[in-house]
Design a protein that fits this description.
The protein is an all-alpha fold. It is 80% helix and 3% strand.
């Protein structure tokens, strides 16, 4: 049985993925990029470009619902949000154009590298020393993958 051209098991898996991303989005302010993109690439076989485009499309209603929920509790700095929207809308068009121009493997590697750097930067103070060695190893692994194992 298929729904919207997808097998039922895949449709259910995508609903679950959306749920995990939605909870992550509301709880941590993340979801589309951090949760969906890797899952769509690894579990569903989408290309990096298709995964990023799909995640961006899903983030629109997710972000609106999450922002509304935070705003209802007066936890949104509206002037800051309005100012950031101006820059982010323009930059999103440029970033999407650049992403589409990059080869799939380069884009995937840059995405992985950004996730590593973000994880290390988000670590609480005091654990950064332990994480710096892991980050160094991961950055070397990414460099080897990029430049040696072409």
């Amino acid at each position: 049985m298929t729904v919207m051209g997808l097998p039922l098991w895949q449709l259910l898996a995508l609903v679950i993925l959306g749920g995990v991303a939605g909870v992550s989005s509301g709880l941590l302010g993340i979801g589309g990029g951090v949760i969906m993109v890797p899952a769509l690439v690894v579990l569903f076989g989408l290309t990096q470009h298709a995964a990023q485009g799909t995640a961006l499309a899903v983030m629109i209603p997710t972000a609106l619902v999450g922002a509304y929920t935070y705003a209802s509790e007066h936890k949104v700095n509206v002037p800051a949000a309005i100012v950031m929207v101006v820059g982010s809308v323009i930059a999103a068009r440029c970033g999407a154009g650049l992403a589409l121009a990059l080869p799939r493997e380069v884009l995937r590697t840059l995405f992985a590298l950004l996730m590593v750097v973000a994880a290390v930067r988000m670590m609480p103070r005091g654990t950064t020393g332990e994480m710096s060695m892991l980050a160094g190893v991961l950055l070397v692994a990414v460099a080897v993958r990029l430049f040696v194992l072409r």
